Give the backbone structure.
Amino acid sequence: MSQTPTAAPVATADRPGVIDARPVRHPGRWVALLVILVLIAMMISSFMTNERWGFGDALTIMNQTPVLEGLWKGTIVGTVGAMVIGVFGGVLIAVLRLSENPVLRFVSFVYTWFFRGIPRLVLLAMIGSGVGYLYNKIDFGFPFGQQFASFLGLSSDFTFFTLNVNQFSSTLLAGIIGLGLSEAAYMAEIARAGILSVDTGQNEAAAALGMSRGKAMRRIVLPQAMRVIVPPTGNETIAMVKDTSLLSAIPVITELFYQTSAIGNRTLLIMPAFVAVSAWYLIVGSVLMVGQYFLERRFGRGFGTGAPNRRFMRPAAAGGA
Amino acid sequence: MSETNPAASTVSSGHSRNGANVPLVRAVNVLKSFHGVEVLKGIDLDVHRGEVVCLLGPSGSGKTTFLRCINQLESIDGGRIWVDGDLMGFRDEQGQLHHLTDKEVATQRREIGMVFQRFNLFPHMTALENVAEAPVQVKGMKKKQARARAVELLEQVGLGDKPTSYPGQLSGGQQQRVAIARALAMDPKLMLFDEPTSALDPELVGEVLRVMRDLAKAGMTMIVVTHEMSFAREVADHVVFMDGGVVVEQGKPKDVIGNPQHERTQSFLRRMRSDEQQEQQSETEAVDPAAPASS
């Protein structure tokens, strides 16, 4: 070990030099490749010869105005809206679940229990028809303000704002809120796992610096929890893209699947309509996967052996000791 | 590290509220148990301004627990702790104690810096952001000002060239020095060190101790839980030997370490000494043959 290394090590019989070895052979891989290629060839041939696939018609259906409107309003706006409600609601419920206040913990538990237990289809159908039947309108004001007012004979009944449920419950917004509330229950569990994954030493360090519990959660714990939260949230988002098709239960008809199948039924191009709607779902899902990659990179900073942050890199002298 | 240490101004500007004679930290009969097991059985300790106190003792003796009680990372079951005249964790209203709110506890902690055995740096922030975080978030300092001060503190701990590194890109010794800078950024009047070098590779211990030595020289009041006997001997004004949740012996380092009276202190120090000698021996053996080749 004490010998100074020479610039170019020379290989001799008793001092082996650079390694030149044959790689391990993998004949199985070539067989697998061959099988897959044959299957792909068969598939392409069937696409070309079986006219019932109707790819041309599918492309036309994909570009119909009602379909594009359904894609934009139902699928994209619906997913974004429901996930925004779901993520923020979920983090809030997770924080409540981990709070020291037993009342808040219980509220959070009941919320998760209820919304995780009810199928989304049922929930949306209930919001669409049931809630409007129970409550024609919802008045926002002081609790029991109307009862007080009639009891005391006051002119004002302390109502600030009235929501017409019959109209509202069949809108896209009502559907988005329904999906969002349901999603929040799932996101709460994901966020809780993320928060619990952060080392307790982080909370102690924040506390020792005089940070309040809330500030430590926002500044120190949640940003680190995001590393654990983001991947399953990507999963949830892609699932939500597909679950927006349930909006037709509200019924919201500016929705991708409803519109494509309507066209399919009308024109008897059933299968091309399915191809069209599948293609759109795959495209949206692919875009989301790219977004997830960048989010994961953003929240993974400082972890692993990644290169130093290039944006702020400067020629620093090596070794600080 | 020169005598014109930025920390020096920090310490001198933190003038006392209660005169110089009152100890900065006074602990009286501190009791603490975990699940029925008594960990601290009545600890008394006074730490005066500018003093460096080292807590020594075998593992499980309660020294880390006691340190954590001072800034309320652990709550105490009995006794009282005052820091700069403030009763920690409670408000005394005519003899009746009331628990402080979380916010009041946080305010008390602001003025006590803590350095952990496992550093506990914020891994998602750069070294600079780690140091500037608390002044901005807790004290409401302007971002620019906090960053400038953070740069200064990083230079003070010898890491002026690493502001943009994430903790994961730094060695253990560098991380611990960032952690010290992070604690100093709050301008504490008291620094607590919980075995700051125990998680470090032997060759990295020196750089951390050097920073702590400079800090002590600059007049910072420090309580240090440590196994580094030479550090305690050279730097400490006062050494406390704990075992089994009680203070067995305390006094000047030359008395407690040099001439221990109690049997338990003697046996502990003997064990430490033989470990140190073994380490030194193996180090010289390892270094010697490589010496001519090292550049």
Notes: The longest strand of chain A covers residues 159-164. The longest helix of chain A spans residues 65-97.
